[in-house]
Amino acid sequence: MITSLIRFSRRHLIHTLIVSTQNIKPSFPTPSHLKTYNLSVCDQSMPNAFSPLVTFYPRASIYHSTYDQMLDLKNALSRTLTKYYPFAGRHAKIAPTFVDCNDHGAEFIEATVDSTLSDFLKNSKHEDLDQFFPFGRTWSNSSGHDRLQSDIVIPLAVKVNHFECGGLAVAVSLSHKVADAYSCVRFVSDWAKMTRACLRKETDEVRSINDPKFISFQNTSIKFSGFSLETSNDCVTRSFVFPNAKINELKVKVKAMTAGSGQPIINPTRVEVLTWLLYKCSIEANIKNNFGSFKPTSIRVATNIRDKMIEQLPENAIGNFLTGMEVQTTTEMDLKPEFLIRELRNQKKKIQSIKNVEAAFAPLLNNTSSSDLDLEELQRKFENAYLCTSVCRYPAYAINFGWGTPVKATLPGNMRKNSFLLMDTPNEDGIEVLVCLGKQDMDVIKMDPDILSIANIY
């Protein structure tokens, strides 16, 4: 058994204790013709990282014992893995090209926490969430745990954390080489539906699960060893919560700012105006901390392409179906909303003109077939850019295992430096943005009047 510590700002120590670890295998073996799942070129180009998600639930009074509750979770996970068979397989740690769907299973870990759920949510900092994840698997695959020193990666690991009050934190880590954040949320949602079916002993719940679609790709290697979303010791992540009413005020402000520019922004979206504001304020904070010196940079916005191409993918398509929209900022004039939002819209139109997923992935395949130089250049651009990802409208707050929807759903700890992650608030009455910046830049942006006027910072 392993003990880990969570430090609260009030210096109270919270202990988590791992009490069990086991492999959960699919309830039925994967058919022989599906034993090898080829990774797409987009999968292969993803960072060596994990898509993490944690959901928090109060005590479920419908169970006689925790044992019964965990039994339903495990049985449901086993049945769900039959549908999500690559998640129960194994892939190489370095430059994987396929998943061996060998049914070895996902790891299921249980731990206890000597705190109540309400105390934790009230007193914790964002980085404290890391302790709830299996082996600390959050954004990178660098960990001191022996299981992660192997050349083989277990794509899926789950850790269920029991609070003293009976509440739970269900944390999931999914290999980014296999699937993206959308896929992760969809998997957990389907696992939750299956758990409800086990609880109620009903088959209608199972029938309501739209089986995931794993698209078949030709075996291809782009000869790219990958890169990690390593966190930095000099960065911090904080939660910025923007109520819808304040976002609407920001929309009005953006329309007014751009009206006289000759390039008015009509009907800006919530994500557009927040992306602009956070990027602008972060750059200005960095300038202030560098004695007024501006350095050219860029912002890369990750985009889910499933519903944006001419030949759309089904919403249950599982994998990495992403592209990045990049806007260069060469002068401080480029921080104006009309420039950034217009450029993002232009690039979105280009994505909407792509015929299908094969055409979307073709440039990546063509650029890397002769050498890995282009991907190395992509990595350098990635490391020097600000990153923005929106998971708004992903139904994380609808994940119901049979004991109600989560009181909180979020992603853990320190992300990659200079990144923003946007997600809906619990009642969809606003947007929560996880902002990761260097400590000095964070100190400045937390005092920025443009931010303080519309956001609550935690």
TrEMBL record:
Gene3D superfamilies cross-referenced by the UniProt entry: Chloramphenicol acetyltransferase-like domain (3.30.559.10)
Keywords: Acyltransferase, Transferase
A GO term for molecular function: acyltransferase activity
Pfam families assigned: Transferase
Protein family per UniProt: Belongs to the plant acyltransferase family.
Protein name: Transferase, Chloramphenicol acetyltransferase-like domain protein
Gene source species: Tagetes erecta
